[in-house]
Amino acid sequence: MTEDQNEKPPVFSTWGKWYWFVMFVLAAQIVVYFLITNSFR
Amino acid sequence: MNSIDWIILFVTLALIVTYGTLKGRGSKNIDGYLLGNKSLPWWNVCLSIMATQASAITFLSTPGQAYEDGMRFLQFYFGLPLAMVILSVTAVPLYHKLKVYTAYEYLETRFDLKTRSLAAFFFLMLRGLSVGITIYAPSLILSTILDWNINLTTIFIGSLVMIYTVTGGTKAVSMTQKYQLTIIMAGMIIAGLTAFYKLPKDISFAEAFQLAGIMGKMNLVDVSFDLTERYNIWSGLIGGLFLFMSYFGADQSQVGRYLGGKSVTESRLGLLFNGLLKVPMQFIILYIGILVFVFYQFHQAPVFHNQSLKDKAMQTEHAMAISALESEYNQVFANKRDEAENLIDAIRKDDPMLIEQSRKTFESIQASEKQIRSKVKEQIATALPGSNTLDKDYVFITFVMAYLPHGLIGLLMAVVFMAAMSSTASELNALASTTTVDIYKRSIKKDGDDYHYVKSSKWFTAGWAIFGMLFASIANQAENLIQFVNIVGSIFYGTILGIFLSAFYLKYIKSNAIFFAAIVAESIIVYCYFFTEVAFLLYNIIGCLVVVVLGFIFQFIENQKTKKAS
After folding, report:
1. Whole-angstrom Cα distance, residue B151 to residue B135?
2. Segment B120-176, tens digit of pLDDT
3. B511: how many CB neighbours lie within 10 A of its CB?
């Protein structure tokens, strides 16, 4: 990946995909933690 | 601790300090000393960021937090991945493009010198104080556990860090942190597994989960909206987002870590991987506390986890009363263990009625146990006036000392020292960078050469280390150490974040407006801390919003005045 690609601002650029991935992992974790909270009480 | 533990502890510490000193040698210019010549790959940036954030308090206090209060503390970190994304989009490319040494340097380009100096001053205030706490908190606990003098423990930790941080600067800090974090995580996972394997043989991992859940400890997500509640999903996502935006975007101890990345790509990936790994890492640390909790349902827990303080109280006329309470506690434990086994049986039979019945009995046993513990604490407080009877920071380390095999005890002690050293090193390095670049080089001695500034940075690093040690030796313990550090952070972070957000996104706001808005915002936060019940995580939002809103208002007034004058 070159530095030029880093400059691309659009949401679905290579970096955009990384950002969505990080947020998706967070959302998935929150869902799992929510399920754990409700399953083990 | 026996000789094997001591050998493991001292060999690990000696290796790290020697490695850091050797690796960091030869930084003759300011780029090398303060930025490590921008040579770090993304994974090293990530480990360095994580090691900086995870102080000894994290490893001592977090399992104790889960033991007492369940896992809801995890929600505090939910805003972190979002902050990593936002900073990767905004701050990282900007800092790299402007080739800054510190985050505050950018503020002069955007606003003016006084705003840069004010932000640098706020940073020096909050980090200067917290470096003392970062050394003090583990020193207090380690001195109690190892029976060392607290001042000597403080000097020991501070001096070890000072050796390689002064010699090697940023490079030494980052290079040592990757090994420190590896040792820390390995040690913690081993401790967690030991707690699990020490449970009665027939209890599975899932049953340990269920048992903890029934006892109200698996409270990972709380969706209720309550502004005064410290930990729920909203305070975590919103308050945490603001706090971590400030911490990673405007706190030099973190900015300094990713400024050392080889390129924008390496710095970004370092931050994003931190966003991916941080929440699971905290989950593991909290779950270790839960395992210790489950373990103590089947093994006798100490009536008071700070054994050393209890021993001192036993030297007084309150010894009889404490012994009587301890016998009562032991009796209650016998009932509790029987009931824990009944509860496990009920879980296996999957009988809701039986589980409910067993839970109720269990809760009443827990209530009497809690009552006895409170009475013991009262006795200790009366016997030793002024002593701190909060013992949850001792839960994990006392478990380690009592139940881990020799060798592992030494390793876990090394973990605590490593964690204290890694975060202290970053803080000292950041304090020295800010003092040198934003204050000394900018406003005091502007015409020095590279050699002079490297030498000054070394002196500032040593100076801040000594200040930290002095502060540590006079600090008084807060309600809970980890929370105190977070509260101190929140008091200043909101304002600093407000300044940076305005700098990044609000071109309308200019230098004078932002400067006075920041001063008013900080006064409001200090007022909230002393005179209101507002949850401390919200200080970040309040501080930030006040800076932005007042910035707009002040700028509007200034523009009107300029118009009238012209």
Report:
1. 11
2. 998 998 888 788 888 887 887 788 788 888 888 889 989 988 988 888 888 888 888
3. 17
Nearest residue of chain B to residue A25 (CA atoms): B276
Beta bridge partners of B261: B40
Query: In the block, which residue shows the tokens 């009366």?
Result: B382
**What is the number of residues in chain A?**
41
Residue with tokens 């100096």, as numbered in its chain? B117
Q: What is the pLDDT of residues B20-70, one digit of tens each?
A: 888 877 677 888 888 877 888 899 999 999 988 888 888 888 999 899 888
Residue type, B458: K
- B275 with A15: Cβ contact below 8 A: no
Instruction: Please give the radius of gyration of chain A, using alpha carbons only, rounded to the nearest integer.
Output: 16
Alpha carbon of B216: minimum distance to chain A alpha carbons (Å): 6
CB neighbour list of residue B375: distance below 8 Å, 6 or more residues apart: B325
Nearest to B221 among A18, A26, A34 (CB): A34
| CA B268/CA B394 separation, integer angstroms | 37
- In angstroms, the separation between the Cα of residue A9 and the nearest Cα of chain B is 8
Measured distance CA(B312)–CA(B342) in Å, rounded: 38
| Residue of B209, B223, B276 to mutate for A, most A C-beta atoms under 10 A | B276
Calculate how close chain B gets to A40, using CA atoms only, in Å. 4
Crossing angle of helices B252-259 and B113-146, rounded to 10°: 100
C-alpha angle B228-B233-B239 in degrees, rounded to nearest 5:
65
Q: Name the nearest CA neighbour of B411 among B196, B184, B142.
A: B184
Asked if B220 lies within 8 A of A33 by C-beta distance, the reply is: yes
Residues contacting A12, CB < 8 A, separation 6+: none
